[in-house]
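Quick one: structure tokens for this chain, please?
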Amino acid sequence: MIQLLRKRRSIRKFTSEKVSVEAIETLIEAALRAPASRSINPWEFIVVDDPELLQKLSLSKQHGSEFLARAPLAIVVCADETKSDVWVEDCSIAAILIQCTAVSLGLGSCWAQIRNRKHDAQQSAEAYIQELLGLPENIKVECVLGIGHAAERPRPLPAEKLQHDKIRRNRWA
């Protein structure tokens, strides 16, 4: 696991190679194995490989979702907010497990935050995706993960650049 974490970087540039059916099934399995508070599993996942929909997803928010237009695959991570008060946390856990699984499969990924982001002055990014994908009102969108074969290879963060000043032992002071 630590090796995956050392390799994982946000990838926003992808080759045109499709993600294999086997890899997609493994990513789905990872999502469905994600732990959730009280085993309620409020999360829902929409797997998108339609180029036209990927293009439209890339317009979800004002900044930071453009890379989705060039991704061969996206997974929209959302949840039924009526099932759990911690759906955000449950979705976040599932999303990072999908991303780590992508690394283990030799794929790259990047998280596009949707919750609490704007599509434009009149509409939230979440409302845009709800409308685009036909989501019911109670299904809230946490993020969209762009996934594919990396066309860039950012270097892993060196250990000496880790923020060790963020670690405390036993007490704050």
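The chain has a mean pLDDT of 97.
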